[in-house]
Every structure is written in structure tokens, then in C-alpha cells.
Amino acid sequence: MNLLEQVHCMVWGPWTLVLFLGVGIFFTLKCKLFQIKGFPYWWRHTAGRILSGDAAVKGEGGKGISQFQSVCTALAATVGTGNIAGVATALTAGGPGALFWMWISAVIGMITAYAETMLGIRYRYKDKNGHYLCGPFIYMERGLGMKGLGILYSFLCLMCSLSMGSMVQANSAVSTMEYTWHVPELTGGLIFTILLMLVICGGISRIGGVAERLVPAASGIYILFSLIILISCVEAVPGAFFAMFESAFRPEAAAGGTAGYAVSRSVRYGISRGVFSNEAGLGTLAVLHGPAENTTCHEQGMWAMFEVFFDTVVLCTLTALVILCMTGSAPEKIPYEGAALASWCFGGRLGMLGEYLVSGSMVVFAFATVMAWFYLGKQAASYLAEGIGLGVDTGAFFSSRVYPALFLGAVFFGSEARLNMVWMLSDIWNGLMAFPNLTALLFLSGEVTLPDEFSENRKKAH
């Protein structure tokens, strides 16, 4: 095992998952199971408002980006290759029970996402150009008075944007285009990079506008075809659920040996893939909700909860059920893995249309993720440049000129390269981001509160 692999094992060791779960459980108890008991309330104030056509959510008459655009931008960062390739990997490595533990990570992560997003909105402020600065680095500086911790976080976020948020996603998209539609790597890389440049040159308003159209459409199509497959093999669905719970709670696990090892892999892969998919605890949702106008910290916190729910409980579950139903609840016996396994499963019922669906979803989700990560990195670059003493003007130049060039270069390079080392570095940067953010959340936990209306309703009920 080389040094990089050793660092990776240290960063994503069992204590990391314990930290994610521990912080989530702490906020779950502090907020009195709000993500579960308050489901009707926060659903009514998030998805329910969109379904009712609430103009305020959609941003009519407001400036900046609307609540819905900020939600779609945040979903763009979380809804990505992890919903397809990540789920398939979790099932082949951890067994059907991994899906159950993905649910657990989502339920716990929902309240973590609520806390970090709420704090982000509470401490955000506008710069001299009228743009919001928001994210963990802001509440670390203004809430904890620890600017150094904020600088560290912004550096890690910047490095993550130039690896996982750009190179890895672009490589997945272009490789998929080459495999499915035989688009040459160079051509695919140029198309991907040019389209991205056209979006990001319009700033957060254009990013939010594109996300508002791209994410709901792509997610809707993916959900529709997943449901078509599940309805066509509905007789296999109960067996898939049985295999999931049987694998997650296998009775002989207590005896140790192979069974115990299988259960431990189920827990590890389920929780880690869940965290990778929904990003709750990494602090990214706090950055992406920052530009939302006409909102409150509680409202955006509830939107963050909805995003984790939609990403993992809806999209990841549909992918997992399709795979389990099509493989007889034994995905590890199929000679495919990752996106190839998902493509094989969708193609088994829908033919070439199924393969095109998975490939198209991978490309669209990857593009949306890159688009959102550009904004994340730009915010981090701006804070980092000013934080290390480059000055406001130099910091603005770095974030508005230098960083976009670096990001687009990383996207194009990533689309052409083989990224085994970059994948590992991306995981390391991603994991390291969690440590300062979760630490800050714990120290600022006293400022995480429930919506006044919900608290008052609970008092009346009692």
C-alpha cells in the first residue's frame, strides 16, 4: 500500500463515519427528531410550495436567484454519478443491505444538512458588489471567531472543486459519451468544456437558471423510467426489500466470521456511499444556498433536508431497486460494476433505450455537478484569496479570472486523462472538508433552532 492509499484509509477510516453519524445523531436528538416527526411540516414548506406554484419560491418579482433555483443548484452538486455508479458500487461491495444503511445515513444527514445550511444563511453577508458570501468559512470566522479554520476549509473546498468537482465528473461524462455514442474523447471534452464555459460566464444567475431547468427535467425522466422498470417486474420488488433487510440485519452476524464481515461491509459501504451522494456534513450545501433571496435561515435549512431526502431516499433507492430486481437481489454475481452494472440492468428491460437512459443521465448529472462545483470553488477561492492577505481587489481578480481558467483547464484535462490518482485525491479532499465543518457545527450547535411556528405548534399539541 503506497502513501496515498494509507492517507486515504486514514481519512475515510471508521472514525470518519462515526464522526458523521455522531454529529447527525447529536443534532437529531437536539432537534427532537425534526426530520422525522416534522416531515409533514417541512415537506409542506418545501416540495409542497413548489407543487402549489408558490411564486415566492420560484422568484417572481425578486432579484438574485430564487429559493427554487438555489435548491436546484444544490441538487446539481449532490445529484450526480453517485446516484448511479455509487449505488451500484455499494450494492456489489456491501450487498443488498447497503441500501438500508444508505437510508440511515440520509435520515441522519438530513438534520446535519439543516444545521449547516441554517448557520450559513444566518452568517452570510454581501460583498461590495452586492453578491452574497456564504458557507462554512463564513460561520467559522464570524460565528466561532476562527478565521484560520475558515481559511483551511476554503482551501480544501478549492482543491475539491479542482479535482472531484471538475476532473472526475468530466472524465465520467466524456468516458460515457465515448462508450455509448462513440464520441471521440477530444471532441467530447471540447463540447463539455465549451458548454460549461457558456454557463459559468453568466455567473450565479445563469447557473441557477440552467440548474432550474436541467435538474428537474433530468431527475424526472430518470424517475419515470425507473418506475417503468419496477412496475414491469413488480413481482420481484418484495424480494428485493426482503434481501435488503435480511442482509442489513442478518441474525448470524453476531456469530462473527464471514457473516459478521458481510454485515460490516454492508454498513460501511452503505453509509459511506450515502455520504458521498448527498454530501450532508461536508458544508457544500451551506455555500450553495447562500445566493437565495427572500428567504430565512429556517426555510433554507428545510430545503437542504429535502435535497438529502430526494437525493438518497428517492433517486438512490430507485437505482438500487432496479439493480436488485434485475439481478435477483444478487448484484455481486453479475460480471459488471459501477455504471456498467446499472446500464446492464436498465438495458435488460428497455434495450438500447435503457442503456442510453443511464448514459444520458450520467452525462447530464455530471454536467450539473460540475456547474454547481464551479460556484462552490469560486466562493472558496474568493474567501481564501482575501483570507491569506491578497487584498479585496486581488482576491476578486483571482476568483473571477484566474480560478475560472484553472477550473475549465481541470475540466478539459480531466476529460482526456486516466484519473486513478485523482479519484483517490478527490476522496481525500472530500473527507478532509468534513472535519473542520463538523467541528464548527458542534461548537455552534446552540444557534441551531427549529422554526418558531413548528415549535409553537408542538407546544399547543402538548
TrEMBL record:
Cite the GO molecular-function annotations of the record. amino acid:sodium symporter activity
* Residue ranges crossing the lipid bilayer per the database entry: 12-29, 71-94, 100-121, 150-170, 190-209, 221-245, 308-326, 356-376, 396-415, 422-444
State the InterPro entries in the record.
Na/Ala_symport
Q: Name one Pfam family in it.
A: Na_Ala_symp
Q: Where in the cell is it found?
A: Cell membrane
Report the sequence similarity comment from the record.
Belongs to the alanine or glycine:cation symporter (AGCS) (TC 2.A.25) family.
Name of the molecule in the record: Sodium:alanine symporter family protein
